[in-house]
Design goal:
CATH architecture of the largest domain: 4-Layer Sandwich
Number of strands: 23
Radius of gyration: 25 Å
Strand order of the largest sheet: 6-5-4-3-2-1-22-23
Number of domains: 2
Oligomer: single chain
Length: about 525
């Protein structure tokens, strides 16, 4: 009975863990590395035909995104997950395949002009469709017999529609162990979803630590803050542009907007139009509308019982075609536009930014975490100019952030969840966090809760039959930054340099009338700086 860590070890994305028990090999998650988590190898570190089952915590690509590659390489087993996760993966994995194919096509066009060789996409739509056919949807709270000696139960993790805490009951010979995988644990009191389920017993726990080093900021009510931002923007005659993740965050925003309209909190234009301009977000919203009630909190269940759709309202418009998307920017009406991607790295949101960033009437409202190096991070950090479609655009719009929208539990939430265990587990494995955060949260568990907690490295393997003793060492992976990322970072760095120049120009213009001695000193400092860089 062994557990190996093949992903999300001292890193946030790419979740993948291998359990060997009862003569079977089971992957818990099979995720893609994303954002800054690009390391020295991304291939799946197990022969795909040897994998008997995949137990999937939820649909986010950093947990599910390598499943089509696993299938492409010969996986013949089943993917066991909740029904809602299976439904979301049916659109998200196809969308991921389209992205892989599009990127490969774009790179091949460039390589052809330069005389280089062709590359293949990581996987294609056929691979995605093939693995989707292997999904087996389950309900929360039911103990399922999977194979001899192995049972599984999915409990609500409160992170995303269908997200699950996975409880594995393993009996091998005379040894019985319960292994709990937290998946991504949700923040409490989030719209639509239940709070994370309480787990009271476990021999081993694999727990995420995304926000294991911080407490979420407590601010004014999210709905009041949201309505105030919309109202102030409409008073200026502007638009509210929201870069949003297509699955999860967009549906939360629609839930808030329904309440804002119902309570008539936007006085300036209570009948304003909301555009959802993302084909993936539209498909995901339809899934949210049609799933069973077991995935929703009591407030949503009460709304549904009363015939109210919690994420729909008068004035909601969806735009599927590119022509419909372009028409939004051609209109001068004050409105709310929700578009992907959430970090402004791709998709239709970049067109909306190009058309709206330059005007001080508009507001760009961020509703999610922005990774360092992304366009979203640059804008939120105060840069004054950005480059979009080979054009430099001034950032004159109001830049705002909506608080209290994190889908992850913070440090207190994680501690509260694991403290519900009635007895100490034999070992706690801390994963799914930045390098230092994994170590910090493991130390917190040791010092505050007196648990035996460690943050395993990539490839590390533990024998669960004998107290979780390590039987194979792991390695600390080195980040690999591909050329395309380097080019993107150079572009962002140059944009930030232009922003610094803009601030310097404003500073110089504000010096008129100051003492000559101060002006001469400032001039000399600038001359010395230019000489150093000349």
């Amino acid at each position: 009975m062994k557990l190996a860590f093949l992903g999300a070890a001292h890193q946030v994305t790419g979740s993948c863990f291998l359990l060997e028990a009862c003569g079977k090999k089971i992957l818990i998650d099979c995720g893609m590395e994303q954002g800054p988590d690009i390391f020295d190898y991304q291939e799946i570190k197990i022969a795909a035909p040897e994998v008997d089952f995949v137990f999937l915590t939820h649909a986010h690509i950093d947990h599910s995104g390598m499943l089509p590659l696993l299938d492409k390489q010969g996986f013949k087993g089943e993917v066991v997950t909740t029904e809602a996760t299976a439904s979301l993966c049916s659109i998200m994995l196809r969308d991921s395949a389209f992205i892989q194919m599009h990127e490969a096509e774009w790179k091949n066009h460039r390589a052809e002009r330069a005389g280089g060789g062709k590359i293949e996409p990581i996987y294609n739509v056929d691979d995605a469709n093939s693995v989707i056919s292997k999904f087996r949807g389950k309900h929360y709270g039911i103990l399922y017999d999977i194979t001899e000696g192995i049972k599984v139960r999915f409990s609500d993790a409160g992170h995303l529609l269908g997200s699950a805490i996975i409880e594995l009951f393993v009996k091998e010979g005379e040894v019985e162990k319960k292994i709990v995988f937290s998946g991504d644990l949700g923040n409490i009191e989030q719209p639509l979803l239940n709070n994370p389920a309480v787990i009271e017993e476990a021999d081993y726990v694999v727990i995420e630590s995304t926000y294991g080093d911080r407490i979420h900021e407590k601010t004014i009510e999210t709905i009041d803050d949201f309505a105030r931002i919309i109202n102030n923007t409409f008073l200026r005659g502007g638009k509210v542009i929201i870069p949003s993740f297509a699955v999860g965050r967009t549906q939360e925003l629609l839930y808030f907007l329904r309440q804002i309209k119902q309570q008539k909190l936007v006085k300036q234009n209570p009948n304003f139009t909301v555009y959802v301009d993302s084909p993936l977000a539209i498909e995901a919203t339809n899934i949210f509308k049609n799933v069973g009630k077991e995935y929703y909190d009591q407030e949503v269940k009460d709304l549904l019982a009363g015939g109210v759709n919690p994420i729909s309202f008068q004035g909601l418009e969806v735009t599927v075609t590119s022509d419909e998307s372009k028409a939004i920017n051609e209109s001068s009406e004050s409105c709310v536009i929700i578009s992907a991607s959430g970090m402004c790295e791709a998709g239709r949101i970049r067109h909306h930014l190009k058309h709206n960033l330059w005007s001080e009437k508009n507001t760009i409202l961020f509703v999610g975490y922005q990774v360092v190096g992304t366009l979203g991070f640059s804008i939120l950090s105060g840069t004054r100019k950005v480059k979009l479609f080979q054009e430099v655009v001034n950032v004159n719009a109001n830049i705002k952030k909506l608080h209290n929208t994190s889908a992850h539990a913070d440090k207190d939430g994680l501690l509260r969840w694991i403290s519900a265990l009635k007895k100490k587990p034999e070992k706690v494995f801390v994963v799914h966090g930045e390098d230092r955060v994994c170590e910090m949260f493991a130390q917190t568990l040791r010092s505050e809760l007196h648990l035996e907690a460690i943050a395993p490295y990539f490839g590390e393997e533990f024998d669960l039959e004998f107290g979780g003793v390590k039987v194979k060492n792991g390695t600390k992976r080195e980040r690999l930054v591909p050329k395309s990322v380097l080019q993107r970072n150079r572009s962002i760095s140059y944009t930030n340099l232009l922003a610094a120049l803009s601030k310097l120009t404003e500073l110089v213009q504000g010096c008129e009338g100051r003492a000559n001695r101060d002006l001469e000193k400032f001039t000399k400092q600038m001359e010395e700086m230019t000489k150093r860089w000349d």
